[in-house]
Amino acid sequence: MSYSEKALDLLESGKIDDFNKQYDLAYHHDSDEMLYSLAEELYSYGFSDQAKKIYQKLLKKFPDEDSLRVDISDILISEGKTDEALAQLSIISSESDAYLQSLVTQADLYQTQGLLDVSREKLLKAKELAPHENVITFALAELLFTMGEYNKAIPLYLGLIKEGVTNISSVNLVERVGISYANDSKFEHAIGYLKQIKTIDMTSDVKFETAFTYLQLKDYDKAIELFQELRESDPQYATLYPYLGQALEEQNKSEDALLVYQEGLSVDQYNEKLYLLSARAATKVDNKELAENYLKEGNKIDPDDIEIVLELSNLFVSEGKYEDNIELLSSYLDDHEMDPQFYWNLAISYDEIDDIKNAHKYYLAAKPYFMDNTTFLKSASLFFRESGDIKNAISLLEMYVTAVPSDDEAAMMLEDYRNY
């Protein structure tokens, strides 16, 4: 038995001190072939320092053996020494037998650095050199999948499946195609692949994607069934709760939906989307107080979520809490991206507390955004008429009457305004 073989036996037995002694003997006395095999085994076991030492010894002896540079680079990348790895890989010329392997390694390196476009460039070059190499095709498909370029990843996955390759590196390619179609909003195509996956092979992510796809196809019964299965098998999968609730609401089960949202909040108490959905469901079951509480909590978690602010503002206005609405919106008035509905809600609120000056100010601010909203046109014209701004009252009521010619009362009001 060689020193290398003895070293591996000792390593597998957990006798590290004895292994280190045999490793030193192997390093100095075993053949190059035996050492290379030892390095490969050691790297697979996670002993990268010892493997790298052997690769470096062999490279010094065989400086033209570029595959050793790739092996060393793989280890350097795992150690975070990307510059040193690139230095090794840059030595490999396009004429080298190891050039293809070098391109794939560079792609991995650039992907770990977040340079996905550069990684794609390397893999495209590799695929050009080896168009039928499944591992390269798969690597490129996975990169495109990661980048969200699903329509480009799908043909690559399908090409592999047509060749009889359905699993690579523990990745189910049929699953990948289904999820890619779903993310590309091609739900009919997606479900055809996703429902081929056996229940036993379904991860939480696949269960979610399949349920979500049924939801998009408006098959609410199937969506609810799968979301509930996911909730039972993986209750910490927080993403499921908003969509399970929405599926239930589509079946007019607002009380059940509210319970689901509340359960979701127990899993993810910082999910502002769940607070918004909980508030809406609470409103549907006529629990305005609960809705207000949820919206306030959501606003505390993310004050920049304008959708929550608007929902709370609308609730305050509908409940007659005008001063609360003014206080809420006052900190958002300098936000250039704020919803124009804020102006309208402020106008209503100031009018209701008889602050005509500010009400007039915000009706004017809201005016450019609601010229096609007949409700605004009529209510704002009434306000302007009562506050003495006849010019704006007439112009808005003229637009309203043009849009709603059947409103005889408004037409008579317009004549009255003109004669004012």
From TrEMBL:
It holds the Pfam family ARM_TT21. The keyword Repeat applies. TPR repeats lie at residues 204-237, 238-271. The keyword Repeat applies. InterPro entries: CellSynth/LPSAsmb/PSIAsmb, TPR-like_helical_dom_sf, TPR_rpt. Gene3D superfamilies: Tetratricopeptide repeat domain. SUPFAM superfamilies: TPR-like (SSF48452). Keywords: Repeat, TPR repeat. This is Tetratricopeptide repeat protein. The lineage of its organism: Bacteria, Bacillati, Bacillota, Bacilli, Lactobacillales.
